Batch of 3 targets.
Target 1
Amino acid sequence: MKRTNLTVHRERAILVGVDTAGPRPAGAGDYFDELAQLARTAGAVVMDRVVQRRPKIDVATYVGTGKAKEIADLALDLDVDVVIFDNDLLPAQVRNLEEAIKLKVIDRTELILDIFATHARSKQAKLQVELAQLEYALPRLKRMWTHLSRQEGGVGIGQRGPGEKQIEVDRRLARKRVADLKRELADIEARKLREVAARSQNFTVALVGYTNAGKSTLMNALSGTQELVEDRLFSTLDTKTHVWELPDGQKVLLSDTVGFIRDLPHQLVASFHATLEEVLHADLLLHVVDAGSPHAEEQIDAVNGVLKEISCQNVPTVLLLNKTDLLEDRLPLQIHMRLHPEAIPVSALRREGLEQIASAVARRMRERQAEIELHVPVTNGRALALIADRGRILSKRLEGEVMIVRALLPLREVAKLKEFRKG
Ligand SMILES: Nc1nc2c(ncn2[C@@H]2O[C@H](COP(=O)(O)OP(=O)(O)OP(=O)(O)O)[C@@H](O)[C@H]2O)c(=O)[nH]1
Ligand SMILES: [Mg+2]
């Protein structure tokens, strides 16, 4: 069924999960809240939730065949458009389920890809999402290619982006498009990397964290910018960098990044690698946590997992327990603090804890700086300019033809100036 206008008709969805009572510590029901939030972010109305408890999944249809029939009946009753599974489905499972339920069936990865597709703004983000969607769709032989055969009518969840022409998917064209996208992205990425390298003399700080944790709110509070803040998932897809002046006058570069989620689709991690590259190059990460979430600890683990996946696990990190204004009861905060004694409690919304963040950053900067005395001939303008540009001059006086400068300098600059070093 084609819908022509999403604003008139929001797709009606049923959420389905299988609880194998396995390693999930909090039970499938809790994760459903996140799936429901994802579904709402994608523009759907959640009509019902179905959980099946079974020791292991059904290989052909994920849920048992009896359950699939039950879902089909429920969907008919509730006039549902789409059934969303809280897990990844194999292409064959989707086919079998669509056959059994007679409705569009999408999995969690497809839902997340769809949200990324609707939220992408910059050219780079759009290309990255299109690549991720194509990589996802290729083995599935479905929903491809509106670019080449633009189709009529509206589009629903899971059908935005690379298109939906069902059967006549041209894999050859799709593969060519993948290659073109990769080439185009490589160009953009090379340019971005040059920009990142050019900034590398500055101390760079990146905000990372679970989606909706409050990264952009904190970015705005710290650097006075006006990034998009919304109570929905994946509002930010592009890395934005702004100058943040610390209270002591030192300037750092602060970057806001795309949010992470548990089981972030690997196609997205691969496509967004370049965007995350900025994180890779940061001197310090500020890991923002929604301390008000009952799943804060699992979210911390999920973020650390993604950081590991992109080889960032060794970048120095300060944990920020955000949204403390939501915690009426101090106990959860005390528990987090016991688990993470170095963490800083903050409220980005109420601008609380910002000074502590600034001093933690300044402290980290100091650890990577040295206070040194340099004796530089006044004729050496290049060295004097380097000191003024990269460091903080604490005092200077002229002795004949030699400028005696005491300065705080990043360790990597100290090495370059060692010939002038005294004391
Ligand atoms: N109560 C409260 N709400 C907050 C705080 N910080 C952020 N929020 C709210 O949390 C929601 C998400 O904030 P964002 O700053 O967009 O979060 P984000 O981490 O950038 O999210 P994505 O870009 O989607 O990954 C918004 O509704 C914010 O107003 C806080 O300290 N307290
Ligand atoms: Mg954001």
Note: The chain has four domains: 12-106, 120-193, 199-365, 368-422.
Target 2
Amino acid sequence: MKLVLLGTGGFTPTEQAQTACFMLPEMGILLDAGTGLYRASSHLQTPDLDIYLSHAHGDHTSGLTYLFSAYFLDEINTLTQEVNEHTPAVAVEQANRRMHATRVHATQTALAELTPKFAPSQFDWRVLQTEERLPCGGKLTSFNLGHHDEVGFRLDWPGHSLAYVTDTIARPDAVYLEPIRGVDLLVHECNGPNRLAQMMTNIGHSYTAAVAEVAAQVEAKRLVLVHKCPVQEWSVDEDMESARVIFPAVEIGNDGMEIEF
Ligand SMILES: [Zn+2]
Ligand SMILES: [Zn+2]
């Protein structure tokens, strides 16, 4: 199973990282829809998509604006006929059809905020269920992260599992530890370094050691850190050596990375 990191930044896109968006191309699934979504066109393998949103903040949803263009580019790049004067109109029609067929799953609270904002796109909005069926016999479980309205996701297929947790404070007594126990791949936010631990906690985000400890505690097999802080001086690079002592299979996620799990 493949996960493509389309956007590994938090808050705002930078030269290094677009904001939160993660794609499972074979399954036609996106986790969050930050600005990294514009890159989805190069990875589309399915007619349309299921998009699961962790919450309504702009760095996780503003990329919905680019969904039409992603489908449009895919239509143009996969043309089976010679280009003619009707090509753009046909591609627009197809892209619109695919956009309207896209299921966007979010909590009631997030939907209340997002549906008026993206009304012109006419997505197929869905209230996120605690358990959702996925293609190829998989299932997605969503769970509250214990702060505001953010939810985390766990996706399971026979022999493959992935959990995505963002915009939360990693701590040993966090409420989401049981749902992610034993997961093959844990994609967890890590917004700042250990030296800014208190500041990260105050703003509702995680620092390196705490995330590594969570991964060790739930016995994840692999940990990828995302939701990079746009402030360069607050990068978590400086903590990687000490993080590996706590949890050896840890790495920083970068835009464009493709991970097999
Ligand atoms: Zn965020
Ligand atoms: Zn947020």
Note: The pocket of zinc ion (ligand 1) is lined by residues 10, 57, 59-60, 167, 227 (CB under 6 Å).
Target 3
Amino acid sequence: MDPISFSVQGKHVLISGGAGGIGSAFAKAFLQHGAHVTITDLKAPADELLQAGARFEFLDVTSDDAVLAVSKKIDTLDVLIHCAGKLKRWEEHQPEVFRNIVDIHLFGNVRLASAFRPHLKRTRGCMINIGSMYSYFGAPQVPAYAAAKTAVVGLTRSLALAYIDDGIRVNAIAPGWIATEISRGGRENPEFNDKLMGRLPNKRWADPEELAGTALFLASPASSLINGVTIPVDGGYTSA
Ligand SMILES: NC(=O)c1ccc[n+]([C@@H]2O[C@H](COP(=O)([O-])OP(=O)(O)OC[C@H]3O[C@@H](n4cnc5c(N)ncnc54)[C@H](O)[C@@H]3O)[C@@H](O)[C@H]2O)c1
């Protein structure tokens, strides 16, 4: 292995929530760089991704059985990315809604990690989890989302240590403010948006493609010494 190679050529990548905004941008970037991509989601990805060679498997990450079933269909995996996500503004104060949101973001992460650990052990692969700015800051409107995203940082550290003898690295990306479906409610709320822009150093919602370079790097040999960390990719938000 060349430790300064940034290549992901020929790697097998699975992206949960891969039909969403960030997942699709990751799928596109890995395909463009010669990787084999499996997208899993509740909905089909854009035709463009299927035409570029992505494979699609329907998968609800809240189902233990479904995650295991998909893991049995996959022979080889080098990179596992958990991008499935949802939030429910204000409704997350209801315990049942809270449970569902944590189930997707946190338990979904654990289900995928557990099901694909043997695959990743065989390839000495890596996992990329997805945090959030709410991994670091409170969010009164989405308490379950913030609790789960904070827990993803701890899970990332813990799995990195637990899997180290398997040769599996586990890191996370904490995206800043990205223009996708999940953030539409915030973007279209003038009060929220004005407050955000008053604090956000780069003063704009970012494109999901702006996260892809970090995912490619974390999946490549160039990041071989990086393990257990969550990298904010946030236009300076956490520094402000
Ligand atoms: N957009 C942002 O500003 C932002 C910021 C920080 C973190 N994130 C995180 O990035 C990840 C991707 O979000 P996005 O911005 O692409 O949002 P998105 O809404 O575009 O995509 C989320 C995808 O997850 C899928 N999904 C939802 N529930 C699922 C389930 N039970 N099983 C499988 N798939 C499911 C949806 O169908 C959708 O395709 C999420 O974890 C999100 O929390 C996003």
Note: The chain has one domain: 12-234.
